[in-house]
Specification:
The structure is a homodimer of 106-residue chains.
Chain A lengths: L6 H4 L3 H11 L3 E2 H5 L6 H13 L3 E6 L2 E6 L5 H30 L1
Antiparallel strand pairs in A: 1-3, 2-3
Chain A binds a DNA duplex (30 and 30 nucleotides) through helix 4.
Chain lengths: 106, 106
DNA sequence: AATTTGCACAACCATTCGGTTGTATTTATA
DNA sequence: TATAAATACAACCGAATGGTTGTGCAAATT
């Protein structure tokens, strides 16, 4: 199996999307992310590891606390892929339209 | 664990993204998708099941062949989520800018 | 000095994932 | 009619996922 640790996989999990949502409002430490999340600190830490490994968050030590900051420019890759796919998809309909129009003219 | 069968999960796998790319150019039957994919027909069939379950493709029987067609409007959900997150993220920087500007004025 | 807080690391666990092989069934085609 | 093609269904497999508990340690707080 291919080693997958990319943005697509990062945002696939709902808990990770929740984390990103929280962090998009500003940097937080782990405890603040854990609060009201319904999962343990260790669980959150695992998700943060995934997010960090694909560059979606950066971690900086501050005393004994660790601050997490989002790096959402990485999401460009997702937007680009979606847009490219949809562009092709729309072109397909344009072709169909053209085909039908041409057929009508005959 | 929560039942996850959504668009985010659908596009998380590189093979599924490849399938979507192929289908965005037009409808194909399974054999055409399998061609040059490097995986077995059964493997592809599993991916198609996932894609179908979250409404990203529709399957229609045509004699003994089965045609797959992409339904990429579902990708709106992804775009919306990404845009919402990034909007918040950018506002955060604006706040920081404002903070720094105000500080300078003092 | 004692205790609490924040975190890292490791082990464990059930489930899902991504893929395979193998068999059976239906539908075209030579 | 025999055979090839397209698919469906099920079992299996190793690895990854998403979580847990448990232990230990350094840094604040009392």
């Amino acid at each position: 199996m291919i080693e997958r640790r990319d943005v697509f996989q990062a945002i696939a999990d709902p808990t990770r999307r929740m984390i990103i949502q929280k962090l998009s409002r500003g940097a937080l430490n782990i405890g603040q992310i854990v609060a009201d999340s319904g999962i343990t600190r260790q669980g959150i830490a695992k998700h943060l590891k995934v997010l960090s490994e694909c560059g979606m968050i950066s971690l900086t030590q501050k005393g004994r606390e660790q601050f997490c900051e989002a790096r959402l420019d990485q999401l460009d890759e997702v937007i680009d892929w979606v847009n490219a796919s949809r562009k092709l998809w729309n072109q397909r309909f344009e072709k169909l339209d053209k085909f039908l129009t041409d057929k009508k003219k005959q």
